[in-house]
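Structure representation:
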Amino acid sequence: QVQLVESGGGLVTAGGSLRLSCAASGRTFSSGTMAWFRQAPGLEREFVSRIYWLNGGTAYRDSVKGRFTISVDKAKSTVYLQMGSLKPEDTAVYYCAATASSLIGTSTYSNDQRYPYWGQGTQVTVSS
């Protein structure tokens, strides 16, 4: 079992920045994938970014490229999502997800059904 706890959400104005954290505990992975998803009110959960635990390789959905950066501190078992140039359309509950599998291919790692471990979510609200 793996437990994930997100933190760092809040209310910011458009153009501002936030850093989300996802702390993992329980079973440790020697390899695998950690990802951020988000869900806005009335919409389906969507993929935001992922990072490979082993080699740090990253990927992002197009709408956040150049604005968001995912990173990992393996010593702290924590994944971060640094969000800059925030827009009102970034408003959502942000969820951290993890799997022991190294998911390869956009359609695979962006599929929320492939992640067995989830955090409770943290609210990000961006006002115009």
